[in-house]
Hints:
Elements: H1 6-17, E1 40-45, E2 52-56, E3 59-64, E4 67-72, E5 77-83, E6 88-93, E7 98-102, E8 106-110, E9 122-124, E10 127-131, E11 137-143, E12 146-151, E13 156-159, E14 164-166, E15 175-180, E16 185-189, E17 192-196, E18 202-206, E19 214-220, E20 225-230, E21 238-243
Antiparallel strand pairs: 1-21, 2-3, 3-4, 4-5, 6-7, 7-8, 8-10, 9-10, 11-12, 12-13, 13-14, 15-16, 16-17, 17-18, 19-20, 20-21
Amino acid sequence: MIKCTFPLLLAALAASAAIPPQPAEGPPWHPWLYDYSVFRAEAALAVGFVGSLEFIEGGLILTTSGLFHRYDTRTRSVSPAADAPHGVTGSFWDGESLWLAGNGAELWRYTAALESLKDWGEPYGERWYIELPSWRQTGLARVGEDFWLVDELGVIYLWRLGEAEPRGEHVVGQGRELVFDGENLWLLSYRGILKLNRAGEILGRLPLPATRGFASGLAWDGGRLWLAVNGADDEDRTLLWSVDPEDAELMPLDEPPEDRRDAVEYD
């Protein structure tokens, strides 16, 4: 007796469609072979452009323009959570507050319930903020009492609430989101995920697993780096990947070909 397996096949295809395929090979601009199987495909989400990622009390928060989304890593489901500032490009959670930076020079604070924290800094409408040392911060992290910032020109700052100085190496081209794993900093860049020590020195990089799209979100869950790549498939979805840095080979910081550069050029 032959059983009909067509419904089961459709169900399997539907389930697999939610997860992007594992990368079979590296991006064409990398001249070396790299084991991209260390990157684990987590999800493909239609939520709009994701500007930042952050883990809060075990849940992953994705910030798009004007909206927080909550992603459940167990059920792989995503849902709108609360209103957010527009243009967020960097965030970190310090155990009590979610700090956000973005297109302007403002630093915002939110609670674990994703409500704007009141009565601190300066009021701006229904939100409060303090001013950052440079315009358009694209990465934000905190190490002890120190804030680490990276701006759109690739300048890395060490900042102590009102006092800022460039620190470490200048990152050519856009630096994006910045995270701290308890020992080292990781900076998302168009050249990959850069590893830096606390002096700001670049130790190497992890190449990006996606061959297309705009990588803009990076978070640390306590053991793995999570990466968001916007517009990385034919359906213009945001793909989420994760990687354990201990399993991945750190590559040197070589320059890619000219057609992959997005560095600022001066006259």
